[in-house]
Amino acid sequence: MRIQLENAGLSFGERVALHPLSLELTEHRIGVIGLNGSGKTSFARLIAGLAKSTRGKILIDGLDWAEDGDALRGRIGFIFQNPGHQIILPVIEDDVALGLKSRGVKGPEVSRRVGAVLQRFGIEDLARRRPHELSGGQLQLAALAAVTVTEPDLLLFDEPTNQLDLRNRAIVKDTIGDLAEQAIVVSHDLDLVAGFERVLVFHEGRIVFDGWGHEAIRFYCELVGC
């Protein structure tokens, strides 16, 4: 997927969340790092269509979010920082099936695709479990299953390892690394993005470095102290 920002920015009244920027993203794995309030989540939300740019354009494979939003929504999935907030049904397999049913998929095809995506992430045993019964890592995988069952081309993650223990962090990291889909990962977890093809460093609403993962982390640590 080709992502283009053309002088795109985001403001809330007098407060600038993201200064105008222009760039193109095509890499398979893209990391986004920066301090809290640096603009990284605003950047991801613009790409996902969860926020509307207050200037400039966001293009996805040549389609403008402002004009072609309906055509783009099914192609991009967003996994929120707290995945428990996006799992809305009381049983995991029902929640995973929800996206398919909303797109008109019916009958045995729903069951087949739900079963396949749960197997893909090794969480078949969670099918009849309730969200409050799951660990943080299991919630992340359940939310990922619910998003990927509709087969988006691009996945955006907002702090996917936040507040996870070491074991669950490793599971989520390995899962993201194995994804066939293109992924953009916003994270404070520098180890998670260290091997990525491209990492953007945000600071005070601007991109201050754009390069390979280890180089970006070295720059970031010199900037803020690690």
UniProtKB/TrEMBL annotation:
PROSITE patterns linked to this entry: ABC_TRANSPORTER_1 (PS00211), ABC_TRANSPORTER_2 (PS50893)
Q: Name one Pfam family in it.
A: ABC_tran
SMART domains to which the protein is assigned, alphabetical: AAA
Residue ranges of every copy of the ABC transporter domain listed in the record:
3-224
> What EC number(s) does this enzyme carry?
3.6.3.-
Gene Ontology, cellular component aspect: ATP-binding cassette (ABC) transporter complex
Kindly state which keywords UniProt assigns to this record, in alphabetical order. Answer: ATP-binding, Hydrolase, Nucleotide-binding, Transport
Which principal EC class is assigned to this enzyme?
Answer: hydrolase
Molecular function, one GO term: ATP hydrolysis activity
InterPro entries linked? AAA+_ATPase (IPR003593), ABC_transporter-like_ATP-bd (IPR003439), ABC_transporter-like_CS (IPR017871), ABC_transpr_CbiO/EcfA_su (IPR015856), ECF_ABC_transporter_ATP-bd (IPR050095), P-loop_NTPase (IPR027417)
Task: Provide the family line.
Answer: Belongs to the ABC transporter superfamily.
- Protein name in the entry: Biotin transport system ATP-binding protein
The lineage is: Bacteria, Pseudomonadati, Pseudomonadota, Alphaproteobacteria, Hyphomicrobiales
